[in-house]
Design goal:
The structure holds two protein chains of two kinds. Chain A is mostly helical. Chain A is built from 34 helices and two strands. In chain A, helix 18 packs across helix 19 and helix 22 crosses helix 34. In chain B, helix 6 packs across helix 11 and helix 8 crosses helix 9. Classes of the chains: A mainly alpha, B mainly alpha.
Amino acid sequence: MENENKNNISSAKSSNEGSQGNIVLTENVQPIPKSTFFFLNVLEAIKKVVLWVVDLIWSIFLSLAHFGVMIGHGCQLATVGTYNFFKTKFYQFKYNDLYGRLSFIVFGASSFKNKQYVNGVLFLLFEIGYILFMILGGGHNLFMLGTLGTFEGGSDPNCTDMFCDYLLPDNSIMILIYGLLTLISIFVFLYIWNRSINSGYNNFRILHYMKFKKIYEENEELSMEIDNAAKLAIENDVSFYTFKNENKQKYLSFAEKFEDYGDEEINKIHLGLCKIISNESINHSYKHYKLLNKENKKLQKFKDKAVEIENRRAEQRTQIDPNDEQKINFFDHTTISILARQKQKIRKQTYKIFEISKKHSNYASQQGVLNASMYEKYNEFYRVRQDYRNKIVFYENYKDICDKFDSLKDKYIAINEENTKKKSDLLVERDKKLEEINKKYDEIVANKNRLIGELKALNARKAEEIKVCNKDPEQVSIIEDKYFTQISKLSGELHGLPDDKVIKSMKKEELNEVKHACKRDRKYLKTNFTDQTYSREEVINYMLLDYKFEHSFASKIINEVLVKEKDQPIRHLTESEVSAKLATLKEELQNYEANHQDCFVGRPKSFKEQVNSLKNENFHLTILSLPVLGVVLFTIVPLLFSILIAFTNYSLGHQPPTQLFTWNGFENFITLFAAPADSVYSMLPSALMLTVGWTICWTIIATFSNYFLGIILALLINKKGIRFKKLWRTIFIMTIAIPQFITLMSIGILLKDTGAVGTWWAQTFGNRLGFGTDPTNGALVSKIIIILVNVWVGIPYTMLSTTGILMNIPNDLYESATVDGAGTVTQFTKITLPYILFVTGPYLITQFVGNVNNFNVIFFLTGGGPNLSGTALQVGHTDLMITFLYKMITSANNPQFGIASAIGIVIFVICAFFSIIMYNKSGAVQSEDQFQ
Amino acid sequence: MKSLKARRILANALIYLLLIVLSVIWLSPIVWLVLQSFAGNGVAARAAFIPTSWTFDNYINLFVDNGGAIDAMFPTWFLNTLIVAILTCIISTLFVLLTSYALSRFRFKARGIFMKANLIIGMFPGFLSMIIMYWVMSQIFHLQGSYWSLVILYSAGSGAGFYISKGFFDTISKSIDEAAMIDGATRNQIFWNIILPLAKPIVVYTVLTSFMSPWGDYITSSYIIGLQNPSQWTVAIGLYQMISNNDFIMSYYTQFAAGAVCVAIPTTLLFIFLQKYYVSGVTGGAVKG
């Protein structure tokens, strides 16, 4: 049927072109010979392969460039970071009080001053402890790190008689461990030092908050000016440095304008802040508009493309025979779906730009908010004064509020009734909506059933007609043609409808939504108001709106003054009482303000509050501390060690605890890549190249074979109409359930020459299979078998993790593809695969790294064999770098720890390189927050 | 020209056939191993697909001391491994869940650095650090040969494996947290009382995987525990020794098969009963990668 379809269309095309009077066409009506088709296909395939290879090479170069840029960027970041760190420290020293400066040397000095005694004691104890540690052993540890031990063992040099004990030499590896730990402890010390200074500085800021606040408020106008300037600068492509220099002057003049506060210290603070603000404000605005500009350009590109597509499609449409209704319908449908996709992109981009510009405000106001949240909440004076002021406002408007309260007294009955009625209305409305939804979906199902019925009837009629004409081929093809349009139209429509499962779930979702909405609305309609509760709520709302009180204050004061006890009649205060209260309040406020000349009583967090915050806003510190400590101490630090070992001669003849080892620079790497021909390791470079080649080859094949075959398996199991899905899945999960070392060892035994398969092979084909043992014939066979076994091991993982993704592919993609006439294979390559690749990019990278380091499969199957002939090294044809390295470490008669660590570094470089390539290619480089 | 329906039936039949063939391939090594464990003819049994004589003695011999070097050691190994696996499982499940929750819900300064550093660290071959850990365990902690050293090694760094569970936590809507916070719950309460019950699949998944990795690990345990004292071995070391050591393979080959079946049974049962959670954990978490 498909063939027929294609012929139809192609003939339609040619006749159509002919009618337009094109020149070449008349010859084209003849069918093209099959061989030409084949030739064209081959050409096409070759073209694709060449393009792919070129693309790959290009992306490798791109990745290299990317790698270089990343390293450069890292260096730049590190330098800028260090520079900024010390600059900040300098400012923190310059603009600080005495205790703050003191805490540069004595940790926690300013904590003591601010009555944070526990913090202060902890800081101080740490400092004393650390200094003691450095004196007692740390300094020695660092000193020893330079040589890794000097005493070579032997009898005690201080002992003069002949009965001395033999002393072991210095243990180089323990020296290395202790030395590195001491080195790391210096960083910890620096961190705590920084914390101590920061806490002091923050306390200082809290104390002098009012002064800072003033500056920020004054800066607001200027900041807006800078913001506008940045916008202009971006539009005119002005570079950052020009822009910065132009605007720097504005701030300096601003600083001079407010030069004198009458106090030396405040003047200094002011100047320092102006400098900081000028710098950061300029950066902030410029960065924002640059980002916005970039996104806007992207949006414009999308829009241009949409217009281009529209024009192109319109042009193509004119070339179609206007009488061929079916084809025009097809064409319109695809146009719409393509445009819809483009429009969706535009919509997303617009939303992104909207979000960015919504988040933006100028630097000064942003800092104002930040400062308010950071420092203002500690301001007790501010809080107490506001409290007094609110109370005064309340009593000034006391009569008003009481009147309001009384006027609402009798309304509660009406409100209760109204709410009851509304509630029942809501129920009725809900039932109506539910019915509508049911009806809607019934209609859809009915429509679908009708289509199916029609299709069946048509097919039956066709079959009957074919039967009548006795299957005469000519007649049959005429009948086929006759019914083709109708059938394909109907089946197209049928394809456009969602399938039963989707309909069911959509219906359920809509029903649930309506039900939930109704429940939620009903919950907020109270019907049990009493006169007091009703008036109370209403008055609180009124106060919130009219007097801008906070909710907590409003409800508190209503409870205190008006509704003292529940269900008791309210006694209003007389006018004289109110005025007396007002007078006392005003007096108190005056007293308070007079007593606090400084206008600010800052109070940093108490120790108890700090501990409590560990359960709440700082919960991540609590829960991350142990795991991160574990990762640092047992993963990162050991890795640093193994990197360091690559630069030592730790090997046979240099093994602690009976021998010393020491630093030897890059000697291990030289041995690894270019060992001199006369040395013991002359075979090492060639063996390494062999393993590197096989490792790369293995990794690529293993990763992609597992990946694609796993996806295919998932597709097979999840195909519509396949039953016992759970059973199939369970069977494949068995590989995950049984520990790998068991399955791999037993497969290893099975395949060896002594095993069942090996024996069977020898009996049937007369020669050895040589899996893992025969160096002449078995090498290639072993490699192939290992890859196959790895497929056996790895497919189930991919199958499981892609199943969820397959279910998430938007269905409309497939529908539009079906309308376009795409077959199953095309759908797979054009929709399924790109989608999965897009989503699972990161997963693919971890798989890749996992396969480079895939120890189990090689070790348990062949142990690296068959061994290379003619070398003293214990390296085999199927050895990956990782097993090669393992053999070097565990070898009893020739352990090479230094060279093994060097190989580890090479593995890292390979992994990093390929990861970057795949990272660039996968396209899943996107902000993670988009998913949430 | 066949009708659509016939084509579909044919396609489905082909798929069924393919799935059956694949299932046979997937199960055959396992079935073969089980058959081997009942073989009566010792090491010669490995040359045939189906053993020529049958016996149950292999299983009994695992527990009976006949005077061989590693006779009746299997129960000790099994117990060692079980203790290590259970302790590791508890600690690392906690670590992984806590880490991934923190990384999913909190935005703090070091978050990006931690996640990037973790990616980079993952590219170094992990067991290079075994050289150092051997010395640390024996010289600093004095735990050489003890299974506590294994527990520390397996679980301490486990926080790094947060990817899948973080992906799962990301799929749980943040508005649930926000609603609870408005109601006055602390972050601590939110995690234990609200998020964890919702994250049941990923909890089960994490428990399963963190039980499996010590259960089937060979390299770390063999390097840290060493081969000197068979009573300290784990099952992986013991079973590997049974067939790789030339002194043992002749007499212990069928015992190896029986032991392997015994080791595989608990995990297989766990997987079959908890399959539902495992699958939804993987699929839920891996979507984000």
